[in-house]
Amino acid sequence: MRFRMGWILCSMMFAMLGVSDSIQAQDGWETIFDGKTLDKWDGNPEFWRVEDGTITGQTTEAKVTKGNTFIIWRGGETADFELKLEYKIINGNSGIQYRSFEVPNEKWVIGGYQADFEAGNTYSGINYGERFRGILALRGQKTEIGADHKPKVLETFGDTNAIQEKIKKEDWNEYHVSAKGFTFEHRINGVLTSVVIDEDKAERRAKGVLALQLHAGPPMKVQFRNIKLKQLKSEGTTSGTGAKKKALLIAGNPSHGFGAHDHLAGCSLLAKLINESGLPVEAEVFSIQKQGWPSAEKLASANTILIYSDGGGGHPFNSHLDELNTLAAKGTGIVCIHYGVETTAGKPGDAFLNWIGGYFEPNWSVNPHWVANYTKLPVHATTRGVQPFSTNDEWYYHMRFREKMDGVTPILTDLPPKESLSRGDGPHSGNPEVRKAVLERKEPQHMAWARERPDGGRGFGTSGGHVHWNWGNDQFRKLVLNAVVWTAGADVPTDGVPAGHVTVNDLLQNHDEKIPDDFNPAMVQAMLDQWNKK
Predict the structure, then answer these.
(1) Which of 52, 115, 119, 520 has the CA that lies 20 to 30 A from 252?
(2) Domain annotation covers residue 12
(3) What dihedral do alpha carbons 35, 38, 39, 44 form, nearest 10°?
(4) In terms of domains, do 205 and 269 share one?
(5) Mean pLDDT for each 10-residue chunk of the chain (534 residues)?
(6) Are 81 and 184 within one domain?
(7) Are the C-beta atoms of 478 and 497 separated by less than 8 Å?
(8) 25 domain residue, yes or no
(9) What are the DSSP calls for 147-161, one per residue?
(10) Domain final position from 231, 253, 270
(11) Which alpha helices (H) appear in 314-437, and where do they start and end?
(12) What is the span of the domain harbouring residue 304?
């Protein structure tokens, strides 16, 4: 008895000292809501709050939401995982989004797999594709989704009414979601409610955000507590957590002289900072000038491929479209920097629209030098830790984007000055459409953007990067580092990827061309001081 009592007292002391949390961590489960604050949760504060130790979402007759709104977990992403939480709902319906995507240009709006539940008697436990193919499995069903994007019932393993009897009305229930490979299982109060096997390779998602839903419609209240997540090793997705992600940074040939289009120097700096960041991402630089085109094995081993090179008709990607399409279909990320965003219309342009969401199209896009002021940045993984900034660069704009910006999130946006269209019409200098857009309609232009593809892969493009010294701008550099890590499928830290302290000497390393005798380091240092002053 004395031994048992001593053990109980020790256990209580350990719990008070936080030892129970470490034991939980050893078991793989992580508590992702502290019960007190919305730290790492991002939702509309008009509808979401912490109440009595719960995440609470509520609408009233006086305060309605025009569409479904979500609170998003910003602590990472879901790939292969298990999730357990308790929920209580009064009126309406709700759900748990996982491996999901943020809808471009609509804040706090999510699409993807959803573990559904409601105050009614029909849909709790189903798998619903919010903005994502509709109902994927009803309650009691095991389904398989094929190339036609439609679920086929493989088995009916439970009676929907019998399942409903296990669910408590206006009381607490436990939801358990499991995603392993492309098999998704939902359980409520220990009862299996639905199973989906997603073989729809064109639409299925290997990874994405976790979010909780507050539904539009009549007044409702939903609460969540004891939210625990266990990340699992990959079982066939492209985003397993076991090994380091690999980023292949391809540097194109030199072309513009010292200080501009310094592809090898730029890639080398980015790779060095990624490898020193402590994140589970390993970056490798590959020089086309010195090594030619990467082997199929090297490309296939990369989780993301960055190209920093000249583009247009001679873009290195143009002669490897089929190879890159195959990799992208498997979830490989693509990042294009500066001239690397330019290709030609047709098959190359269509590929870029799929990979990264937009590209520089001759006779549509333009390439002036001007000072861009990025005063407001969107909430996105690539902008974590990035502060508003301003630089003078050859900021291409009026990109050719996907229709209705489908799947594309603008990242760097500004309205170019009229002086940027002072040149005559030409393949790169101007055209009637861009003049109407900027001079007449005053439409802000996007100089960086992100794309999340249905295959689970990610893309990123930015038209900046002509001026080599701009890699010394802490904000621009962090943005691109974030993009590399994000497209590789790794989690971007809350404060972004560590961007290091870059000196003039750092910027002088690994140049393709000899440093001129008249190079003035003091001039570059003055720019660094201006950009990065605290």
Answers:
(1) 520
(2) no
(3) 170
(4) no
(5) 39 39 58 96 96 97 94 93 97 96 91 97 97 96 93 93 96 96 94 94 91 96 97 57 82 90 94 93 94 92 95 95 92 96 96 97 97 93 93 96 92 97 96 97 97 88 95 95 94 88 89 86 87 75
(6) yes
(7) yes
(8) no
(9) TTS-EEEEEE-S-HH
(10) 231
(11) 321-329, 347-355, 432-435
(12) 245-532
Residue carrying structure tokens 């030409």: 426
Please state the domain count of the chain.
Answer: 2
CA pair distance 223, 58, nearest whole angstrom: 9
Residues 216 and 350 placed together within one structural domain of the fold: no
Do residues 74 and 175 share a domain? Answer: yes
Indicate whether 219 and 342 sit together in one domain: no
Nearest by Cα to 487 from 296, 288, 270, 314: 270
Domain assignment present for 1: no
Mark out the alpha helices in 424-464 (DSSP H runs). Answer: 432-435
The string of DSSP letters for 199-267 reads --TTT--S-EEEEEEE-SSS-EEEEEEEEEEEE---SSSS--SSS-EEEEEEE----S-TTBS-HHHHH
pLDDT at 491: 85
Q: Which two tokens stand for residue 289?
A: 């000038």
| Largest pairwise CA distance in the chain | 92
Q: Which residues contact 210 (CB under 8 A, 6 or more apart)?
A: 72, 73, 77, 78, 83, 96, 97, 98, 100, 229
Residue with tokens 């939702």: 43
- Residue 491: CATH number of its domain: 3.40.50.880
Kindly report whether the global pTM for this prediction surpasses the value 0.70.
no
